[in-house]
Amino acid sequence: MVAVGIIFMNKWVLKNVGFQFPVFLTGSHYAVSWALMAILNSFALLPASPPTKSTPLSLFTLGVVMSLSTGLANVSLKYNSVGFYQMAKIAVTPSIVLAEFIWYKKKVTFSKVVALTVVSIGVAIATVTDLQFSLFGACVAVAWIIPSAVNKILWSNMQQQENWTALSLMWKTTPITLLFLVSMIPFLDPPGVLAFHWSFNNTSAILVSAFLGFLLQWSGALALGATSAISHVVLGQFKTCVILLGSCYLFGSNPGTISIIGAFIAIAGMSFFTYLNLRDKKLQPQPGLQVSSALPKSKLSEGNGEIRDRFGTETV
């Protein structure tokens, strides 16, 4: 629900509050995230950085890619409708498949390709009734696709293969991301952020958006560490369909018959994809002995669910 809530909250801030500075808004998210993690660190609640093979260059790359992914996402949300924003996410799935094949020689079975195709078609049908966009917004959405795909791949791979926990990796990369977001502000944000009417209500809305941004980053990192980049995208598309159907059932909204049919088609594809992942997991040989890590854990990491499948099994 956090992922859905922040999309609508950011759209509310950009449109209804009149805060026309999407990159600055993204930067405020990471500034609040860093402040919250600093508080956790002061109380020894932040997981310790693990002994890892990660190089400073890999952490720097992740921080830069993350700034492009999240910064461009909010710029796209400013100039496009929520439906077009969700439609652009469809292109992230084939981008991840192609990138993982190029970098890691990771292949996707034909049955999973069919499932992902059904999901993409269903989401496209479900969101086709809300496709308001501008030329600049469409260009930003296209530019966002590659950084978004690379961001998910790096987060998933570094946690599963290099022993990072979600919070410890966030703690290392957030300052880099924040620095590059600040450098993007003159190019993508209009001037006048200091002249904005910083009333209590407006500031509160921005801070709520920032807090949701922290929760989204944390929950997303946990999901990427436990599953895979593709599964994380499918999970996000599932939430889109649930919101559409839930709004229709609970609040009497009328997205249209075509959108409802598209949502059910997408959910059918997601169910098939989940079945394939669970089947593959059962077919994998089980390790005879699990060796526990000698790395000391913080109080928070022992209870925040940051236990991951070290073999990177795809599950949703």
The coarse silhouette is: globular
Order of helices and strands: HHHHHHHHHHH
Share of helix, binned: over 70%
What kind of sheet is the major sheet? none
Pairing-aware structural class of the strands and helices?
mainly alpha
Please give the radius of gyration in angstroms: 20 Å
How many discrete structural domains? 1
Return the average pLDDT rounded to an integer.
Answer: 85
Task: Give the count of helical stretches.
Answer: 11
What's the β-strand tally? Answer: 0
What portion of the residues fall into strands of 2 or more residues? under 5%
Q: What is the first-to-last residue Cα distance?
A: 16 Å
- Spans of at least 5 consecutive residues whose pLDDT stays below 50 are 289-296, 305-316
Keywords:
mainly alpha, globular, 11 helices, 316 residues, disordered C terminus
Give a description of the structure:
With 316 residues, the chain is mainly alpha-helical. The chain has one domain (2-6, 20-281). The protein contains eleven helices and no strands. α10 packs antiparallel against α11 (257-283). The longest helix is centred in the middle third of the chain and has 28 residues, at 135-162. It is globular. Residues 289-296 and 305-316 have low confidence and may be disordered.
Layout of strands and helices, then pairs:
Layout: H1 2-15, H2 22-42, H3 56-79, H4 82-89, H5 92-104, H6 110-127, H7 135-162, H8 166-188, H9 200-226, H10 229-251, H11 257-283
Helix pairs in contact: 1-9, 2-3, 2-8, 2-9, 3-7, 3-8, 5-7, 5-10, 6-10, 6-11, 7-9, 10-11
